[in-house]
Amino acid sequence: MSVELRHLRHFVALAEEEHFGRAAERVFVVQQALSNSIRNLEEEVGVPLVLRTTRRVQLTPAGQEFLIGARETLALAGQTVERARRAARGEVGRLSVGFVSGLAFGGLPEIVRRFRELYPNVSVDLRELTAQEQEAALRGGQVGIGLMLLPVRDPSLDSRALWRQPLVAALPAAHPLARKRKLKISDLRAEAFVFFPRQIRATYFDQVMRWCAAAGFTPHVVQEAIEVPTLLSLVAAGVGVFLPIEFFSRLSLPGVAYRPIEDAPIVDIVAVWRRGDGRNPIIRAFLTVAEEVLRGDPAEGSPK
């Protein structure tokens, strides 16, 4: 059977108008074309669907039953077309987002909240992963987009800087340096440090070490930890000082004081995706929301 949607539209118009002329005007065809369309439809179905009189058109019992199905089919077709259009705009579907742990304290909550407000029919799956784990998950297709610190060098991945943040000093609250409003990196020359293991965040680690080397010293790392909250807890315990990105200061722990540092390096917070996936409308939509939120547009809300 080769019933077309236009046949159904013509039939529904005729059933509702009960007149060939008015129905033809409604679907923007000439009356003869509408009559031929209905005749072709009846031939396909194999039974009469309308009774033609000089005054009006009436449906046969078969036509009345066919009208129910025709309306349902047209409604479903309309929904299917709209769903495809919404998918092309990135308004429906699923997105898996990888993120490094620190972003949970600044940026990520605002991005995800705003994205869900704008795209309620996109399911967002959040996965806390290190940068190295995110890169592997992106290459393997387990994650659609990743949020991490500093650019990636993998040629199979694309990235875009979303937000720039300076490093700050996290000090034990009772530390003498906490009485100063602003520090120089050289003020920390004699301090014990707590920091990430290099194998976990090599780029971040190397950037800090170069900065300190330029100031004439190498940080004495006395304790390592993988997660930012753990490192800040060590600071609170007086084990050492830490150099986090500014937005980590949102994590207000008793016993920790944050101070800006003159000429501190700026660290990029980047979005990363598999090369070629940037055409995916959901990824494009997520990137747009992330950039707007992290810029602090008033209409989008600010993480600051």
UniProtKB/TrEMBL annotation:
Keyword Lyase: no
Segments forming a coiled coil: none
Transmembrane segments: none
Pfam families given in the database record: HTH_1, LysR_substrate
GO molecular function, one term: DNA binding
Family named by the database record: Belongs to the LysR transcriptional regulatory family.
Name of this chain's protein: LysR family transcriptional regulator
Organism, as annotated: Deinococcus soli (ex Cha et al. 2016)
